[in-house]
C-alpha cells in the first residue's frame, strides 16, 4: 500500500510543477466545462434513472475514446519509468491504477457519478450508502477501460494492418459521434434503449436500485480489467514489427526528388502516418455517408473535401514529427524541402480525395461544380498550409526511434497538438470559402476560382514556409531538441492578462463554436430547407419566424463569444501602453 501512495504522491508532484501558465489555464477551462457536464449528469439522477443510465454511458464512451483521439491519454507516470525496478506487471498495473485516480478528469467524473447517490437517496438510506462503493468501482472501470483501449490501439499500431484497422475504427466512431443526430433521428430519441442498462456504466446504478449482484459484478470486472491491463503492460516493452524485406534505395537525381521519395515512403511505411491516413479517410467517408441511414444522400458528395480537411489536420505538425532529424534539413540549403513535402502530400492525399469525390458525387449525380471547386481549392490550400503551420507553430515531438511503447503518443504536449489540429481544420476550411461561394453563384466558373485559389495557396504558403524554415531553422531545431518554445510576443501579452481576462478568453474560444455552428449556422440551413425536429437543433422545433430568430440569435451569440475573447486577448495591458 505504501508504494501505491508513493505513486500517487509522484503524480501530484509532477502535476504541481507542470501545470503552469497557458497549460494551467487550458486545464482550468477544461475543468470548468467538465464540472458543468458532471453537474448536469448528477442532476439526471434526480430526473430519471433512464436518463442517468444514458448519461453514464456517454461518460464511459468518453473515457474509452477520448484518450485514443488525444494522443494516448494521461501518461504522467509511464510504465517504462519503472521497468528496471523488477516490479511484476500485475503489481505495476495496480500501482499505476492508484495514481490514475489523481487528476482533474477522475475528480470531475466522480462528480458525475454522484448521480448514483442522488438516485439512491430517492429510494432510501441503504440505497444511498450502496452508491458510495458503486461510485468508486464505477470510476475504476472507467479508468481501466480507458487504459486498455489505448493499450489495444497501441498494440494494433505495431503492424501496418493493425494501424490501418485501428484508424478505420477510430474514424468511424468519431464521425458517428459528430453525426449523432442522424442515429437519434433514425432510432428515435424518446426513452433510453434497453441495451444501455447492460453496459458496465449502468451496473452501479443497478446496484443502487436494489440489484445487489451488480456490485459484485463491478468488483469482478475491475479485477478482470486489471489483469488484462497487466498483460498488455507486459507486452508494451516490445518494439513495432518491421518488415524483413530488403528496402530499395532511393535513386533520385535531384535534391527535391529525394525529398519527395523520402516523404512518399514515410506516408506508406510509417505506422503512425498509416493510422492517420486511414483515420482521415474513414472519417471523411462515414461522416458524409452516415445520413444515408435516414435516407438523405445530400452529404455523400462532400466525402472527398471532408477527407482533405481532416487529412490536413492530422498532418498539422509535419515538421515536428521529424524530431531532431530536422538538422538534416538545416544542413542541406537549397534542397527545396518544403516544395518536396508539398508535392508528396498532394500526391498521396490528392489521389485518394479525387477518387473518393468522383465516386461519391457520381452516385448522387452532383453537384459537380461545387464539389470540384471545393476539391481544387482545399487540396491547394491544405498542401500550402501543412508546411506553413508546421514551421510557424511547431510542437516539439518525440524522435520516432525514441517513442514509447504507446505509438499514439508522439509528443508530450497533447494540448498543443490538439490546438494545432483544430487551427489547421479552420484555416483549410477558409481556403475553400471563395471557391464554394463562386460555385454556388456562378456554377462551373467556380471550378476555375477553386483552381486559381488552390494554386495561389500552394505557391504562396509554400514560399512563406520556405522563408520561415530558412530564417528560423536554428530556433526550430532548438525547440525540437529542448522541447521549449521561444516565448512569442502574443504569448507574452496573453500571460500578462489578468485571471478574469484569461477566463473570458478561454470560455470564448472554447464555447463559441457551439452556438455559432451547430445551433446557429447548421440549424439555419435546416430551417431554410424546411427540416423540422432535427434532434438537438433547437431552432428546428420552433414555428416560423421564431425558428429563424433563434438560429440567428445563436449565431450572434457565438460571434459575441469569439469577439469578446479576441477583444480581451488583443487588449494591451496598461503597463505596455505608451503614455501620452
Would you give an account of this structure?
The radius of gyration is 25 Å and the shape is globular. It is mainly alpha-helical and 580 residues long. The N and C termini lie far apart (65 Å). It has helices at residues 2-18, 21-47, 49-69, 89-100, 104-113, 115-121, 125-156, 160-178, 180-187, 203-208, 213-236, 255-269, 271-289, 303-314, 326-330, 337-364, 368-392, 414-442, 445-471, 473-482, 489-495, 499-511, 513-528, 546-570. The longest helix is centred in the first third of the chain and has 32 residues, at 125-156. The protein has 3 domains: 2-236, no CATH class; 255-486, no CATH class; 489-580, no CATH class.
SSE topology:
Elements: H1 2-18, H2 21-47, H3 49-69, H4 89-100, H5 104-113, H6 115-121, H7 125-156, H8 160-178, H9 180-187, H10 203-208, H11 213-236, H12 255-269, H13 271-289, H14 303-314, H15 326-330, H16 337-364, H17 368-392, H18 414-442, H19 445-471, H20 473-482, H21 489-495, H22 499-511, H23 513-528, H24 546-570
Helix pairs in contact: 1-4, 2-3, 2-5, 2-6, 3-7, 4-11, 5-7, 6-7, 7-11, 8-13, 12-13, 12-16, 13-14, 14-16, 14-17, 14-18, 16-17, 16-19, 17-18, 17-19, 18-19, 22-24, 23-24
Can you give the mean pLDDT? 80
Number of DSSP strand runs:
0
Question: What order do the SSEs take from the amino end to the carboxyl end, as H and E?
Answer: HHHHHHHHHHHHHHHHHHHHHHHH
Shape: globular
Low-confidence stretches: 238-244, 572-580
Quickly count the domains.
3
Q: Nearest-angstrom radius of gyration?
A: 25 Å
Main beta sheet, described?
A: none
End-to-end separation:
65 Å
- Structural classification: mainly alpha
- Beta-strand residue fraction: under 5%
Helix content: over 70%
- In DSSP terms (H or I, runs of 4 or more residues), the helix count works out at 24
